[in-house]
Amino acid sequence: MRIGIDIGGTKTAAIAVSDDGTFGEVVKRATGFGGRAVLDSAETSVRLLAARSGLAVSALSSIGVGIPGAVDSASGVVSHAVNLGVSELALGAELGRRMGVPVHVENDVKAAALGAHHLTSIAAGPGDGGSMAYLNLGTGLAAGIVQNGVLLRGASGAAGEIGHLPIDPIGELCGCGQRGCLETVASGSAIARMWPSDAALPAAELFDRAAAGDAKALAVQRTFFEGVAAGVRMLVLTVDVDRVVIGGGLSALGEPLIHGVRGVLADWSLSSPFLASLRLSDRVQLIPIGFPAAAFGAALVGVK
Question: Which architecture characterizes domain 112-286 according to CATH?
C-alpha cells in the first residue's frame, strides 16, 4: 500500500493506492499556511489513511507528495511555493522523519501527469502506454510530459512550463515578468481578466453565457479555446506525444471545452496540410472528471 498526497493552496487530498492500482476514497483537509502547517496536513492525512486501511504507518511501502513550486525530486526540497507560504522546505526529509517511511516529492503538475499517464495507458493497451502530455488548466497553465513511462523533468525541472512561452510580444504582462505568455489567454486567471465577473465560477458563467449566444462571451471563449489549442500544438510539435490529456480545475467544463479546443485544431488543419497530417484534434482528450490525478500520480513517484 502506498499513499499519494496532493498538496494544494487551500486543500490537501490524499489516497491510498494498492499494488494493483486500485484506490479508495479521497481524504481531503485544509492545507494551512507555512512549512509546519503543510507538514502537519500531510502527516495527518497519512495517519488517517493508514488507520482506515487497517495498517500501521510503518507497513506502508512509500509516501509520495505532489506540491506546487520548484521541486528538487532527488532531495525532496520544495522552494518558491508562494501560495503555501513556503520559501524552502525539506519536505521529503521532514515528512520521512515523522513517518519512518520513504517519502518522494514531485511538482504537482508532474505528479498529475504520472497519474494521467497511468489511467490513459490502460486504454492504450499493453506496453508502457507510449508518450503523453498532461496539460493542466488551473489558475495558471503548465504541462507534464511522460515518455516511455518516464517523467520528463529537464535540466532544472522546468520541462513542460509552456504557460510561460510568449505568443504575443505586445500582449498582457504575465506574472513571470514576460509579456504575452500563453498563460495570459489560456488559464483561469486569464478568464477572470478577460471576463470580469462577481460569479463564484467565472469560467462556468462565461461558458453559460456563450452557450446562450452572448457575443462578448463567445469572443472571450474563442480566445481561450485558441490558447488551449496552441498549448496542444506546442506539445505535439516539440515532443510529438501520442496524446495530450487536459486536466486541472478548468477540465470540469467538460464537453464544451474539449469540443471547442478540437474545433480550433480542426480549423487550423483546414489551412495547413502539415498540421492536418499530425491529427491534433484526435490526440487531445479530457481527464475523467473526479479522477484524483495528482494524488494518484504522487503515489507512483519513486516507484520502480
Answer: 2-Layer Sandwich (3.30)
